[in-house]
Design goal:
Length: 109
């Protein structure tokens, strides 16, 4: 086991806060270095309120379920089930949907 150092709870709290602030700064720097698509606030609010990201991005792209099905090669019923939360969709299915919508898979889950 390595060396141990004892510090006060107050000093620990200060170091912990500084580490969290540094992580926030690094995340901000990464986000600014890789600017992505700006999503209108109304669409973000819908996702924050719990609406299916698949549905929100589909609406953002102005696609119907049938249009997304045609573009992605995923059955429209499967899209409806994912949007309704009845099914989650396989990684392969989500990859097809993400590609058709021009987003990362992470954006859909």
């Amino acid at each position: 086991m390595g060396e141990m150092v004892t510090i006060s709870r107050e000093e620990y709290a200060v170091l912990r806060a500084a580490a969290e602030e540094l992580a926030d700064i690094e995340a901000y720097d990464r986000a600014m270095a890789e600017p992505g698509e700006a999503i209108p606030a109304e669409f973000v609010r819908r996702m924050v309120d719990g609406e299916s990201p698949l549905r929100v991005f589909r609406d953002l792209r102005d696609l119907t379920q049938a249009g997304l099905a045609e573009r992605s090669g995923v059955n429209r019923v499967q899209i409806a089930d994912i949007e309704a939360g009845r099914k989650t969709g396989s990684v392969q299915t989500l990859r097809k949907l993400a590609e058709a919508l021009g987003v990362a898979i992470d954006d859909l889950v």
